[in-house]
Amino acid sequence: MENNQEYDFIIKNLNLHYGDNHVLKDINMEIKHSRVTAFIGPSGCGKSTLLRCLNRMNDLYDICRIDGDIFYKNININEMNPVELRTKVGMVFQSPNPFPMSIFDNVAYGPRCNGIKDKATLKEIVTTSLKKASLYDEVKDRLKDNALGLSGGQQQRLCIARAIAIQPEVILMDEPTSALDPIATSKIEELIDELKQDYTIIIVTHNMQQAARISDYTAFFLLGEVIEMGETSELFANPQNEKTEDYITGRFG
Amino acid sequence: MMNVDREKFLKKRKLVDRIRNVLTYISAFFGVLVLAAILAFIFIGGLPNLSFKMLVSDYKIELTTVRIESDRKFENPDDKYEYFSSNFGVAIEDGKDNSGERIIVIEYLDENSPFKNSICIDNTDLKDSVVDIEVGSSLNLMMGEDEFGVFVMASNGDDLEDYIEALDRLTKIDSLQIESQGGGIRGSLLTTIILIITTLIIALPIGIGAAIYIVLYAKESKFKRAIVSMIDMTSGVPSIIFGFVGAIIFIPFVTKLGASSGYTILAGALTMSIVLLPVITKTTAESLLVIPLSYQMASLSLGASKTQTVFKVILPNAFPGILQATLLSIGRIIGESAALLFVMGSNISDEVSLFGQSTSLSLHIWNITSGESPNFGQAAAISIIILIVVFVMSTSVKLISKRQLKNNGG
Predict the structure, then answer these.
(1) Does a structural domain hold residue A157?
(2) Domain assignment present for A222
(3) Cα A18 to chain centroid, rounded
(4) What is the mean pLDDT of chain B?
(5) Which residues in chain A (163-192) have CB-CB distances under 8 A to chain B?
(6) How far is B294 from chain A (nearest CA, A)?
(7) Is pLDDT of A120 > 90?
(8) How many domains does chain A have?
């Protein structure tokens, strides 16, 4: 705790209820700056829910009740303006969800909503974001085309570009490759590898090999609890908890 | 034994099935027949009276009374015209005005005809000026004295033969009524258009706003449920109830605004807005509900505020639904009569203004068919216009819904 600058997120005693459903139980966790952290675990274990807590997307659900504290760079996120928080903490969703507008407008959406009107600036942001998401070469001649005409993998990279365009510090990814084929998946994984130079990335995944390949830290979730968290190489090679071992060796899940 | 029972059963079933089928066919046939009969009645009665001139001309007949003197005789060119007056150089024929009434019109006018020098005798600004009479002008009551001092009179109720005979007995017409063709629906058509535009300007923002509040902002609560069920209920209330409530509330309101009488298009538009609010709110709310939540999530996750999300992402995607609500509303406004009867009245007027009294097409029909001599021919013609508009509206709603489905699917 003395080295607070090291952590982007510090989660303390977090409990979350959906109505009568106790979804997250007493979560304590630190997320390191400029690293890739993976959340793994079987379906319904609460990993996506925790991810949505980090940029307060759970605010959208009336029946969701959250106790405990989450600190983003030592500020309690409940004291931050959620709109402000989300410009710092971007998000990419499970299935690609570009808006039904042009590729350019999709990427420019975030900056425009945050008050950038100058055309040259917008163009530059769009170009750099698309380049960072390694999509620029594929779409540079058709920035005016509807984004829904892109393939699934391209749409997901567009969503990543869209998230990058608001210049966040953290990018949350909620199973970003689960709707994609293996080739598109490997492209996204390469992309994550490049992006971790500049951003803290938290990724939720079903795929343990993916977590092992791309992450520095891994947290294993089961039934709303964090069973084990540590360096990825350590967790996969030498799990401390029996349940973790059962899961990563494929005995359940 | 079993076999006999089975056969009996099969026979009975065949009979019962046949009876049921025949009943279905008969009811379907009657349904179609009735609809076809109504349409046939309207089209047969209306088509002969339908003309572009009816759409653009005034309802009220304007009368100009003139006097005409002749000092020479005219030739009937090649004896072409059956009813020709050699005294005045005029040929006449039967005609029909916009509402289908028989009138007498000028078929031919010699270029030196004294009709071209007719002098107005009305007590208006036009008095003693030359009145423009041309081919197509319609003639009515004519009075004068012939050379023996006998009083001669004819009107458009007479046969052409009698009229022309009367005309040729005169050399000096003391009084002749020239009529403009009345019976047009220009005023009512214009009123309907203004009514539609004003109503939409009032009702669309309120309805869409209410839908946005209910779907996107209101938290699940008793209050929200109460509002939603209230909207459901009000969409079923007969419009005549809205009509008299509108009469009680809006007519004094519009009078306060400065109109000389409360019976105005504005009062009609306000009342129609209330009638349409539930429809617009419901249709828009339905289209808002089907917009994927993922759009909203994506927008919020990009640091857009909720309001930005609503106006930049959700509303544009709800556009087809809003358009559908608009078209439904237009159809409803055109067809409405009960509610408007209270706040606009059925007085047909050619001078149309938002703060003035005039009437819509539906009430125009009511007006011309409720008097002593109902004019069903023209009513049918106006009905055709209304039917065409409603048909175009419903077809475009269908097309839009189809395209919307396609878009959502692909």
Answers:
(1) no
(2) yes
(3) 21
(4) 87
(5) 163, 165-166
(6) 6
(7) yes
(8) 1
Residue A201 has pLDDT above 50, yes or no: yes
Supply the pLDDT for residue A2: 44
CATH number at B186-407: 1.10.3720.10
Helix (H) or strand (E) holding A20: none
Contacts A91 to B, Cβ<8 Å: 297, 301
- Among chain B residues, the shortest Cα distance to A88 is held by B303
Please give the structure tokens belonging to residue A246: 């059962």
In chain B, where are the structural domains located? 2-49, 61-179, 186-407
Measured CA to CA, the distance from residue B271 to residue B253 in angstroms comes to 12
Residue B125 has pLDDT above 90, yes or no: no
Query: pTM for the whole thing?
Result: 0.78
**Structure-token pair, residue B147:** 């050379």
Question: Is A93 a member of any domain?
Answer: yes
Residue A93, domain CATH: 3.40.50.300
User: Is pLDDT larger for residue B114 or for residue B22?
Assistant: B22
Q: Does residue A161 sit within a domain?
A: no
Is residue B272 a contact partner of residue B195, using CB atoms and an 8 Å limit?
yes
Q: State whether CATH 2.40.50.140 applies to domain B61-179.
A: no
> CB of A151 within 8 Å of any CB in chain B?
no
For residue A173, the enclosing domain spans 7-98+168-248
- Total count of residues recorded for chain A: 253
pLDDT in tens, A136-189: 999 989 998 889 989 988 999 999 999 999 999 999 999 998 888 888 889 889
